[in-house]
């Protein structure tokens, strides 16, 4: 009787451990390592290898990497000091939650078919973490993104004008 109880208890403990490990959410791991100069990185995957990367650096400069066109381009611009300070304040006040998933969620994830996904990374205490911004922070990032993409469009227009301008003979 005592031996049966121990076996049942052992099976119960193993079952609880298995369920906990399988279903308990843990922070998503990331292979990406941000440089210390990067405050936030925003990545928008469009479809089948097309993407837009926006890096906001600690000094307020922005690097936009666009592969939606036939040639990948990098455009550099700057955000206002007010937006930079507001973003730093929101990051320091932890106006975000960590992206989490369970072991089961990892196994069922279909990343290769995940078109249209958006990811946010921040550099926190020397570690790169994947976050899900709360409303106020998401709105600020969206306004910075729109501003950066308008700069990208202006740059494309300038490039087209330069390409179409005939050289003097």
Write a structural description.
The chain has one domain (25-164). The chain is 41% helix and 28% strand. It has helices spanning 2-23, 81-92, 103-108, 135-164; strands at residues 26-27, 38-45, 51-57, 61-66, 73-78, 96-98, 100-101, 118-124, 127-133. The chain has a 7-stranded antiparallel sheet with strand order 5-4-3-2-8-9-6. Strands 1-7 form a two-stranded antiparallel sheet. The protein is elongated. Mean pLDDT is 76; it is low at 161-169.
Main features:
single chain, 169 residues, alpha+beta, two-stranded antiparallel ribbon, elongated
Query: Whole-number radius of gyration?
Result: 23 Å
Query: What is the N-to-C order of secondary-structure elements (H for helix, E for strand)?
Result: HEEEEEHEEHEEH
Instruction: State the share of residues found in helices, binned by percent.
Output: 40-55%
Unreliable spans are 161-169
Q: With helices defined by DSSP (H or I, 4 residues minimum), what is the helix count?
A: 4
Beta content = 25-35%
In short:
This protein has one domain. Helices cover about 40% and strands about 30% of the residues.
List the helices and strands and how they pair.
Elements: H1 2-23, E1 26-27, E2 38-45, E3 51-57, E4 61-66, E5 73-78, H2 81-92, E6 96-98, E7 100-101, H3 103-108, E8 118-124, E9 127-133, H4 135-164
Antiparallel strand pairs: 1-7, 2-3, 2-8, 3-4, 4-5, 6-9, 8-9
Helix pairs in contact: 2-4
